[in-house]
Every structure is written in structure tokens, then in C-alpha cells.
């Protein structure tokens, strides 16, 4: 795998954060490990808007953070959409969600959902009609909580549908059923993503 710097990243890159040794990271990793999920060291996920800003669902809700500043100490695995229009669409969609959160404060963090993703079991991908309905409600200012990997999966499933590909082909689970470790498992060998490389902590 190739070590990447921020200059090598692209809009729509899917970023999987590795445990940084913090109490929260250790707790997430332990929970994923206890229920037998693979890749328990993957504890968070986000979508790149450009080469430096990652859009992610975290404690403050959907937010944008600079990899060179706020997230400088974190390490990531980078998965890139094979179809460039998916990447551009995902970056734009994630940024729109961040802008909505900035304006309306209606996309808060879903802690219970994150915990539930460890035990939820399989679930069908959200239908295109339900995806559209959810986005309409969000655009109207109504609240909808997300946890990190749920946000990422929703964004990519929505963008896939907009480009004529069923969201279930990208990820064949409901977005609320996908923990960070499950997302990592789904990305390995996916025909829609390639493993672009990794970003080391404090090396940007």
C-alpha cells in the first residue's frame, strides 16, 4: 500500500480511521471485537470534501475538519471510488449535509445508533424512495441523527442511486446496521472501491 499525503487525496475518498489509542477509540474497538466483528481497529469513518477537509458524523454532529489541523494526529486507510463521478458526488453530498447542519443544527450524532450497529444484525438497504424522503426532510430542517459509518454509507448509497446504480450494490445493508469495522469489511474486495493507500498520523 502507498503512503498518501493530503495532496494525494481526492473528493469523495472514503476515510477509515484507525484506533488512536484514546479511551473512546479503545471502547469502540473493544465493542466491535466483543461481538466478533472483523477489523475492530477501524473505529471511525468519513468522506473527503476536497484534499484536506473530511466530513464526518461525530460528537458535535455532521462536521468538517482539516486533516492538517484538527485531525492531524489520526491515521486512515483510504478507499477511493472506482467511478470518479461517485467520488465527486459523495464529496458534494457530504458537504451539503455539513452546510445543513451548520445552518439548522439538525444532524446530530446518534450515539444509540452507533451502539445498536454492533448488535443490529442484517438489514436491507434503504429504498431509493426512502432515501429521497429522508433528504427532503433534512432539507426542510427536520432532524435526523447519524453516526459516522451510517453517514458514510447513506451518502454513498444515495449518490449511487443518483447515478443509476442500486445503493444495495455498493453496500447490501441498511446504513444504520454498518459499524466502522463492518464498513471496512464491505470495502475489501468491493468492485466499486479501490484501496488507494494510507495516511499516517502527523504526516500530511
Protein model, in words:
- By secondary structure, the protein is an alpha+beta fold.
- It has one domain: endopeptidase fold (from Nostoc punctiforme), CATH 3.90.1720.
- Helix content is 38%, strand content 18%.
- The chain has seven helices and six strands.
- The protein has a six-stranded antiparallel β-sheet.
- A hairpin with a 2-residue loop joins strand 3 (53-58) and strand 4.
- Helix 2 crosses helix 5.
- The mean pLDDT is 96.
Concise structural overview:
This protein has 204 residues and is α+β, with helices and mostly antiparallel strands.
Main traits of this protein?
204 residues; globular; 6 strands; 6-stranded antiparallel sheet; alpha+beta; endopeptidase fold (from Nostoc punctiforme)
Q: What is the 3D shape?
A: globular
Domain count: 1
Strand content: 15-25%
Alpha carbon gap, first and last residue: 16 Å
Strands side by side in the biggest sheet: 4-3-2-1-5-6
Give the topology, please.
Layout: E1 14-18, H1 23-34, E2 42-48, E3 53-58, E4 61-66, E5 76-81, H2 84-104, H3 111-116, H4 128-139, H5 148-162, H6 167-170, H7 180-187, E6 193-199
Amino acid at each position: 500500500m502507498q503512503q498518501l499525503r493530503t495532496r494525494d487525496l481526492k473528493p469523495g475518498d472514503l476515510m477509515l480511521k484507525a484506533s488512536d489509542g484514546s479511551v473512546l477509540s479503545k471502547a469502540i474497538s473493544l465493542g466491535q471485537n466483543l461481538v466478533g466483528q472483523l477489523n475492530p481497529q477501524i473505529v471511525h469513518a468519513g468522506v473527503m470534501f476536497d484534499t484536506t477537509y473530511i466530513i464526518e458524523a461525530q460528537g458535535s454532529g455532521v462536521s468538517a475538519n482539516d486533516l492538517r489541523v484538527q485531525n492531524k494526529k489520526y491515521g486512515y486507510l483510504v478507499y477511493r471510488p472506482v467511478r470518479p463521478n461517485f467520488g465527486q458526488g459523495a464529496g458534494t453530498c457530504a458537504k451539503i449535509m455539513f452546510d445543513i447542519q451548520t445552518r439548522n443544527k439538525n444532524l446530530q450524532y446518534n450515539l444509540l445508533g452507533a451502539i445498536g450497529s454492533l448488535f443490529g444484525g442484517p438489514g436491507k438497504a434503504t429504498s431509493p424512495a426512502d432515501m429521497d424522503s429522508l433528504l427532503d426532510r433534512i432539507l426542510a430542517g427536520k432532524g435526523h441523527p447519524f453516526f459516522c459509518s451510517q453517514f458514510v454509507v447513506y451518502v454513498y448509497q444515495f449518490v449511487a442511486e443518483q447515478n443509476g446504480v442500486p445503493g444495495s450494490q455498493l453496500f447490501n445493508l441498511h446504513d444504520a446496521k454498518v459499524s466502522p469495522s463492518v464498513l471496512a469489511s464491505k470495502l475489501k474486495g468491493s468492485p466499486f472501491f479501490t484501496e488507494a493507500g494510507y495516511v499516517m498520523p502527523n504526516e500530511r
